[in-house]
Amino acid sequence: VVELVESGGTSVQSGGSLRLSCISSGYTYRGHAMGWFRQAPGKEREGVAAIDSDDNTNYADSVQGRFTISQDNAKNTVYLQMNSLKPEDTAMYYCAAVAPRYFMAVRRTPSLSEDVYAYWGQGTQVTVSS
Length: 130
Hints:
By secondary structure, the chain is mainly beta. The protein has strands at 3-7, 11-13, 18-25, 33-39, 46-52, 57-59, 67-72, 77-82, 91-98, 117-120, 124-129. The radius of gyration is 14 Å and the shape is globular. The mean pLDDT is 95.
């Protein structure tokens, strides 16, 4: 059973920084890929950042240059470092893991599409005030 548990969400002022963490269990595949998504009230969930087992990364245009995704395989943990936060970054942030059957498809360019993600965490709330 794959489990993903996010942490690190909180309230912060505009311009501040946060680091989200996602600890996985039961997801130790060679060639894995994971991502961060977010959903603001009244909006669809969107891909924010993704990383594969070779540390290739992919970012949404809205966070490029401000957010950094990384991973520590020894700790089964994926991080999302968020800097220069803006009120429009306010959302529930979800960690997700790609289904093994899509590993080759997303290799080198980790996907920001929900379609290839099979496992999801419960989310952690980030609120950015102006």
